[in-house]
Amino acid sequence: MSDKAIKNISQCQNALLNEGYFIDFISLPSDILELSSSDNFDSLDKRLFELTKDDGLLFNYLKQFCPLKEIEFIISLREAQDEWEEDGIWHDDGSRMLAFSLSLTTTPPIGGVLEFRKKGLEESNKISTPAYGNIIVFKTGIDQYEHKINKVENGRRLIIAGWCT
User: Fold this and answer.
1) pTM of the model
2) Considering 16, 98, 130, 144, which has the largest number of Cβ atoms within 10 A of its Cβ?
């Protein structure tokens, strides 16, 4: 591992400890972009399963931040054109150790902001949908944090939402 990668992991660990979240970039295999751009969600789901199983790319990345046994994930597509599109509700992801949002979004939407806060506080961190390959890793209810996703006003937001147990 390069000195830059070690420094980056250390910075991420510090941000997670002090702020409850961090944003980093993961170099994803090229087929992930192809599958997500073509809305081939069945194949994308199978491919992501490989990346999240023991010794997969995402598994190896995330185990640097918690004693990881398993990753659960969903493909989350939110589009302004959907009439049911609305602000999400505050939730804490239960007893999971960490949560993450891995962006497969190629054109930033308007809206779709992730809000993240310590439970009981009104003020929150507001994180716009990051560019493709960026991952937001954040603490959950175990550490008294909660989050929500706001309505996508224009465009689409494609991310992999995941949880570490």
Assistant:
1) 0.92
2) 98
Average of per-residue pLDDT across 139-159? 96
Determine the Cα–Cα distance for residues 151 and 111; give it in Å rounded to an integer: 6
Where do the structural domains in the chain lie, given as residue ranges?
3-164
Q: How far is CA 120 from the centre of its chain?
A: 23
With left for phi above 0 and alpha for psi between -120 and 50, is residue 48 left, alpha or beta?
alpha
Give dist(CA 111, CA 113) in Å, integer.
Answer: 5
CA distance 135 to 103: 6
What gap in Å lies between CA 163 and CA 94, rounded to an integer?
10
The secondary structure of residue 67, as a DSSP letter, is: -
Residue from 158, 145, 105, 132 nearest 29 by CA: 132
- Pairwise CA distance, residues 135 & 16, whole Å: 13
Helix axes 30-37, 41-52, angle to 10 degrees: 150
**Radius of gyration (C-alpha) of the chain in whole angstroms:** 15
Residue 65 DSSP one-character state: T
Cα separations in angstroms, 20 against 51, 116, 136:
24, 9, 11
Per-residue model confidence (pLDDT) at position 147: 97
